[in-house]
Design goal:
The complex is a heterotrimer.
Chain A (H helix, E strand, L loop, with lengths): L1 H13 L2 H19 L5 H12 L4 H26 L5 H15 L3 H35 L3 H15 L7 H15 L2 E2 L6 E2 L13 H19 L18 H22 L5 H16 L12 H16 L1 H7 L5 H12 L8 H4 L1 H32 L4 H20 L2 H19 L4 H24 L6 H4 L1 H18 L1 H14 L1
Chain B lengths: L1 H14 L1 H8 L5 E5 L6 H17 L3 E5 L6 H9 L6 E6 L5 H4 L11 E10 L2 E5 L7 H10 L5 E4 L5 H13 L4 E4 L3 H9 L5 E4 L1 H9 L3 E6 L26 E8 L4 H14 L3 H11 L2 E2 L4 H22 L5
Parallel strand pairs in B: 1-2, 1-3, 6-7, 6-8
Antiparallel strand pairs in B: 3-10, 4-10, 4-11, 5-8, 5-9
Helix pairs in contact in B: 1-2, 2-10, 3-11, 7-12
Chain C lengths: L7 H20 L6 E2 L2 E2 L3 H23 L10 H20 L2 H13 L7 H22 L14
Antiparallel strand pairs in C: 1-2
Helix pairs in contact in C: 1-2, 3-4, 4-5
Classes of the chains: A mainly alpha, B alpha/beta, C mainly alpha.
Chain lengths: 501, 322, 153
């Protein structure tokens, strides 16, 4: 079979000692920067770019790819341990992962993330190998209209992220959407809500908002209880998964993998939705949705799988079309160009060894990640037994340095403090930050796509239902909304809320 | 004796007063500020220049990206910096657009800076999807004239040089092609590939692979010279619009008041480092352009002329100032 | 305990939403609405902010009618210290350098804990400052000065 021959070619190319070494180096570095909050793969890869000039193209790309998915992976570690999501995708992991950690199940949560990611990575590698060209066509079938409807679906689904009051969740989403609009409007070039501050011209960085409301808010909240919380975790029970837990995560991991693989392909922001969508679905189909947000293992397994699968399939538009789906991919294209390779539709046929080698290296890299991280789980969990009054200053320090590293701006550090206070106040009022953050991500995209779709159709609002994919997505959104507003479902929500109160 | 030789060198330099500052310079690390996203083509050029420049100057040259407000944040920071040669900056063609686009700027694109040297020049490419009826630029302009509003073009965003090139084309050819802004070139290219918009104005390095793979058809390049990467594609001027000449560039600037000796030293080091065939090839490959160094005066004249041109285009196209 | 309103958390949440919505409406009042074929920068924010005001009103009214917990006192001291620590870092990192700024963050933040002891706090500050200088600047090469211009080079 062709695919087998191709994969063999890929593994052959990827498993030379040199390439294996760079693959390992990449995932190691990725894990490191993922664990260091705020320091993202974009900044790291940009700094490492000149070093890669001296490497053969394949080694360079294998290493950069390793940094990327290694960082996705490492980001969930801090999300689980200290409620500090450094990437939009690990925010969802923090919801239930951190609760698990508080209950002494940090080890289980980390192991779940590791195994879920590895499984998803393996499947996504196969997807890449088998279906890259047809999936690239799918990526191109999404225009502004389709993306708009996809974002609307994401928005409706985000209501499910909350486990408290429905109305408050909607309010939080709206605040998030509005905050997301701060900055220069793509369609008109007008600067909105920036108060003529140049630092706000490009909007507020997601990492600042997420770190502020999650991590800083959490620190202040913990300090409020004073002596009561000497350590975050009082007892650390098991480090690994029980047979029963393993059984419980199989289906969520499968669903997350499927969802992540599909959404990851869409270059216009699909990958960002993967972990949210996975979480939403798990909560929706669970017979005990009230456990979500309070340490449900499915709420870690599925988004982590989706996140990792999406990270991998987001290579498809780059490898097959030469279109970067995020800044990291753009960097990798830059690396290729400097190496004298023009990424584009011709790479598969002209450089089969490179193409298949990179795909094969992803599976190898995922294997390295599991081997590297499973033994580390014990170490990370022990970190939690450090007394809290020594731990939280360190968390704060890593956060401020991370925020500073985003764009070298002390203004951003000030914003971090502001969002820390906002996070604390929201928490006092039982307003959940997760819907706010999703709104923040989706706000500018919804507006951009809606306005562009209308501009392209000369103001015809019907385009959203005339395009079949868009119509289907909107129908799905309407269905989801109906489910949320369905009285009987609402009653269970209210019950859950009162138990909570 | 090493020490004696250093001593001798210092004495010799001390005697030659004019060169003194330049010869001692630099004694500590130099910051190379720029206002573009890490990993973008401007950032890549900065890093490609910084590495050999460090080696030549014997002090680290640290690339410091300060993205924001279309590069204005960094430009303001460069203008404000101590003019001692330890803060220099990299700016691109967009630097000359700022004056027309923003109501209030914390700097003047020409007067707040000492120009050091231009580094590289590159074209823009006009391209349509392969199944589009227009085979040449003339045919496209005819379609645009017959059915106003039917030809929409995508660019990397409002107020980018790509966008202004489109508006300039509208003006010179007396057509009304509607502008659709995107967040960066990649999104705009996707949109042409899936047929949402017919035309795109993009930088050569991002668009060339699609053209070579037969997905898009290049109609013209915007400068007065053809580009080696696509030698069969005519210039806009060749396609019938006489004197049309737009290219963009990247160059090094320093804060106003930086000693001339330091400027001269940097200028000559840059000229030497880009002469290295490997560095030259990498920079040219990174943007799809040609190395083109200049004297400080030439660069100043260039930035001033472009600033004037874009202020005019922005006014005539009715692009709102921010 | 007698409460002024029955569900203060919801009432205050609603109030914050209404105020936020009005603030966005006021700041955004000058942005154009545009038309369907070219939506202006004002349309989307105005739509969202109006919705937020409505939702805020609903939350508030519901809060007046339902029973709920009272709000526990705000932890003023930790909040102020964490904010101060963050701002101190922003101020010091460019002037005094990463080492001093890091130590300041740690020390000021540590003051917020009831278990704070000076010797321990100072040791922690020095240790973390050294660690971060090594990891971020020397190992990862971030363009941040370890020792800033204020302290000489």
């Amino acid at each position: 079979m062709d695919i087998l021959a191709n994969l063999a070619l890929g593994f052959d190319a990827a498993s030379t000692p040199l390439n294996l070494a760079y693959c390992f180096l990449g995932v190691l570095l990725g894990t490191l920067i993922g664990v260091l909050p705020g320091l993202g793969p974009v900044a790291t890869i940009a700094m490492l770019l000149p070093i890669t000039f001296g490497l053969p193209p394949m080694a360079a790309l294998i290493m950069l790819a390793g940094i990327y998915y290694g960082a996705q992976y490492g980001g969930s570690t801090t999300a689980i341990l200290i409620n500090l999501p450094g990437e939009s995708s690990s925010m969802v992991t923090a919801l239930d992962g951190y609760q698990m950690a508080r209950q002494g199940r940090a080890g289980t949560a980390l192991a779940t993330a590791a195994l879920g990611s590895f499984f998803a990575g393996t499947v996504a590698t196969l997807v890449l190998a088998l279906f890259s060209p047809p999936l690239a066509t799918l990526a191109l079938s999404f225009g502004a209209t389709e993306y708009f409807s996809l974002m609307v679906l994401g928005l409706v689904a985000s209501i499910v992220l909350a486990h408290g009051s429905l109305l408050k969740a909607i309010g939080m989403i709206l605040i998030g959407l509005l905050l997301g609009l701060v900055g220069t409007d793509v369609n008109s070039g007008v600067q909105r809500f920036t108060f003529d501050i140049d630092n706000l011209a490009d909007g507020i960085n997601f990492v600042i908002v997420a770190m502020g409301v999650f991590a800083l808010g959490e620190i202040i909240r913990n300090l409020e209880h004073g002596e009561a919380s000497q350590t975050v975790v009082n007892k650390v029970s098991s480090l690994l998964l029980t047979r029963e837990e393993l059984k419980r995560i199989i289906a969520p991991v499968l669903r997350g993998t499927a969802l992540g693989s599909v959404l990851g392909i869409l270059p216009g922001g699909g990958a960002m939705l993967a972990s949210f969508a996975a979480y939403t679905i798990e909560k929706r189909i669970s017979s005990t949705p009230e456990r979500f947000g309070k340490g449900a293992i499915e709420g870690v397994a599925s988004p982590e799988a989706a996140n990792n699968a999406g990270a991998q399939t987001s290579f498809i538009p780059m490898l097959t079309l030469g279109i970067p789906s995020n800044p990291v991919m753009a960097l990798m294209i830059g690396a290729l160009i400097i190496q004298g390779i023009q990424p584009g539709p011709a790479v598969v046929t002209e450089q089969p060894e490179l193409f298949w080698g990179i795909i094969a290296s992803m599976w190898i890299g995922n294997l390295f990640l599991v081997i590297l991280n499973l033994p580390l789980v014990g170490l990370w969990v022990r970190l939690l037994s450090v007394p809290y009054h020594l731990l939280y200053p360190a968390i704060l320090l890593f956060s401020v340095i991370g925020v500073l590293s985003i764009s070298n701006s002390t203004f951003d550090v000030t914003m971090l403090a502001i969002f820390g206070v906002i996070g604390y106040v929201l928490c006092k009022l039982d307003c959940e930050p997760a819907p706010l953050l999703l709104g923040f991500i989706l706000g500018p995209m919804i507006e951009e796509y809606m306005s562009r779709a209308l501009q392209l159709s000369n103001g015809n609002f019907l385009v959203f239902v005339e395009h079949p994919i868009s119509a289907a997505l909107l129908a799905l959104a309407a269905f989801a909304l109906a489910m949320v507003l369905w009285p009987s479902f609402r009653k269970t929500r209210e019950v859950a809320f009162q138990e909570d109160a | 004796m090493k020490r004696a030789r250093v001593f001798g060198a210092v004495v010799a330099v001390g005697l030659w007063a004019a060169g003194a500052i330049a010869a001692e310079y630099p004694t500590r690390p130099i910051t190379l500020l720029h206002g573009y996203a890490p990993g973008g083509s401007a950032d890549t050029i900065a890093r490609l220049v910084a590495k050999p420049l460090s080696e030549r100057l014997g002090q680290p040259v640290v690339v410091d990206p300060k993205p924001g407000a279309g590069g204005n944040l960094a430009a303001a920071a460069i203008a404000r910096a101590e003019p001692d040669g330890y803060t220099i900056g990299l700016v691109t063609g967009g630097h000359a657009v700022a004056k027309g686009l923003y109501k209030s700027l914390a700097f003047d694109p020409v007067d707040s800076f000492e120009m050091v040297s231009n580094i590289v020049e590159y074209n823009f490419v006009l391209a349509v999807r392969t199944d589009h009826p227009a085979k040449t630029l003339q045919e496209l302009l005819t379609i645009a004239k017959q059915a106003p509003g039917s030809v929409k073009y995508g660019s990397a965003g409002i107020g980018t040089t790509h966008h202004l090139t489109g508006e300039l084309l509208n003006k010179v050819a007396s057509v009304q092609m509607a502008h659709i802004p995107y967040k960066g070139e990649a999104a705009a290219i996707t949109s042409v590939l899936n047929g949402e918009i017919p035309l795109i104005i993009a930088s050569p390095v991002t668009i060339a692979p699609q053209i070579r793979a037969g997905k898009l058809r290049a109609l013209a390049v915007t400068s007065d010279r053809r580009w080696d990467g696509l030698p069969d594609v005519p210039t806009v001027a060749e396609a019938g619009l006489k004197d049309f000449n737009v290219s963009t560039w990247a160059g090094i600037v320093a804060p106003k008041g930086t000693p001339p000796a330091i400027i001269a030293r940097l200028n000559s080091e840059i000229a030497k480092l880009v002469a290295d065939p490997e560095v030259k090839a990498r920079i040219e490959g990174a943007v799809g352009g040609e190395i083109h160094t200049s004297t400080p005066a030439e660069m100043r004249a260039r930035v001033a002329a472009e600033t004037t041109r874009w202020v005019g285009v922005i006014k005539e196209a009715g692009i709102a100032q921010q | 305990m007698k409460k002024l309103v029955s569900n203060p958390k919801d009432v205050l949440s609603g109030l914050i939403m209404v105020i936020t919505g009005i603030a966005f409406l006021v700041v955004g009042r000058g942005y154009e609405f545009g038309q369907a074929s070219r939506i202006g920068p004002g349309f989307f924010p105005a739509l969202l902010a109006s919705l937020l005001v409505l939702v805020g009103l609903a939350v508030g009214v519901k809060g007046l009618r339902s029973e709920g917990e009272s709000i526990r006192a705000f932890a003023t001291k930790p909040t102020l210290l964490i904010v101060a620590a963050t701002l101190a870092f922003g101020f010091l990192v460019r002037t005094a350098g990463l080492a001093v700024a890091s130590a300041a963050v740690v020390l000021i933040a540590a003051l917020a804990s009831p278990s704070f002891r000076w010797t321990q706090g100072i040791l922690l500050a020095i240790g973390l400052a050294a660690l971060c200088s090594i990891v971020f600047v020397f190992a990862l090469g971030l363009p941040i000065p370890v020792v800033g211009p204020l302290l000489g080079r």
